[in-house]
């Protein structure tokens, strides 16, 4: 594949390594100073977007309007979601978005939903979610944390929404705590806790580095160039895992 990379920070450099190892090439490295109208689209097979929440919407719109398949790992743009989905449908676009492209995290998503379904039986546990990331992360809570919280809410009848605060500050029994913490050099840790007077159950995913996120985005790019549609990474992850094994 010939890849246009939107964003060339730490994630972009990790993606570059995996692309090269898998026999692909980066033909464009795009930052906020790049004039998108100067891109040679005929030389690009697919775009991978890991820029910033402020730039993502413009970049996604550009790719859709120019029939360029795109993988979107950036979060914080979802207030434009419906508009961009409509453009994708009108243009017969090819797009994969997700709050987290890591294979391990997507397994975590599945286990989290299954556990929440069990806990919906009113076993006396209260639930809380905590996400920990590096101090350079621009959004809080993380997109992954939001996905985890929303998956829990969809399975537990008593919960109706989440709030980005410590569990001790939740006064409404129908609100799920989604706490954020920022520490130096933490790629990402997500913790789901269920607790009652008898015991505590913790479901934890800890990213050791950025490789998992980068690999998932490259696998998604390899898949989307042969497909059309507006997909979440959660939808297509089973296909990507199947191809790996």
Folded structure, characterized:
With 245 residues, this protein is α/β, with parallel strands linked by helices. The chain folds into 2 domains: 2-101 and 210-244, NAD(P)-binding Rossmann-like Domain (Rossmann fold, 3-Layer(aba) Sandwich), CATH 3.40.50.720; 103-206, Dihydrodipicolinate Reductase, domain 2 (2-Layer Sandwich), CATH 3.30.360.10. 37% of the residues lie in helices and 25% in strands. The chain is built from 7 helices and 11 strands. The strands form 2 sheets. Strands 2-1-3-4-5-11 form a 6-stranded parallel beta sheet, with helices on both faces. It starts with a strand and ends with a helix.
Helix and strand layout, with pairings?
Layout: E1 2-6, H1 10-21, E2 25-30, E3 46-49, H2 53-65, E4 70-72, H3 81-90, E5 94-97, H4 103-119, E6 126-134, H5 143-155, E7 161-163, E8 175-183, E9 189-195, E10 200-206, H6 211-224, E11 229-232, H7 233-244
Parallel strand pairs: 1-2, 1-3, 3-4, 4-5, 5-11, 6-8, 7-8
Antiparallel strand pairs: 6-9, 9-10
Helix pairs in contact: 1-6, 4-5, 6-7
């Amino acid at each position: 594949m010939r890849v246009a990379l939107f964003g060339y920070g730490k994630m972009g450099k990790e993606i570059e390594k995996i692309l090269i190892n898998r026999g692909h090439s980066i033909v464009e490295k795009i930052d906020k100073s790049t004039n998108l109208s100067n891109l040679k689209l005929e030389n690009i097979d697919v775009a991978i977007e890991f820029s910033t929440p402020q730039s993502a919407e413009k970049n996604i719109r550009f790719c859709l309007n120019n029939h360029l398949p795109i993988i979107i790992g950036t979060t914080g743009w979802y207030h434009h979601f419906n508009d961009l989905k409509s453009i994708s449908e009108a243009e017969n676009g090819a797009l994969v978005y997700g709050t987290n492209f890591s294979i391990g995290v997507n397994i975590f998503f599945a286990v989290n939903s299954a556990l929440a379904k069990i806990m919906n039986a009113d076993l006396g546990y209260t639930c809380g979610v905590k996400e920990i990331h590096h101090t350079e992360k621009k959004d809080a809570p993380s997109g992954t944390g939001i996905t985890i919280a929303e998956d829990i809410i969809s399975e537990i009848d008593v919960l109706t929404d989440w709030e980005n605060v410590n569990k001790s500050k939740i006064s409404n029994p129908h609100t799920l705590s989604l706490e954020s913490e920022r520490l130096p050099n933490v790629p990402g840790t997500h913790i789901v806790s269920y607790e009652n007077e008898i015991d505590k159950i913790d479901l934890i995913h800890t990213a050791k580095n950025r490789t998992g996120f980068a690999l998932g985005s490259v696998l998604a790019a390899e898949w989307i160039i042969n497909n059309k549609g507006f997909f979440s990474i959660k939808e297509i992850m089973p296909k990507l895992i199947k191809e790996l094994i």
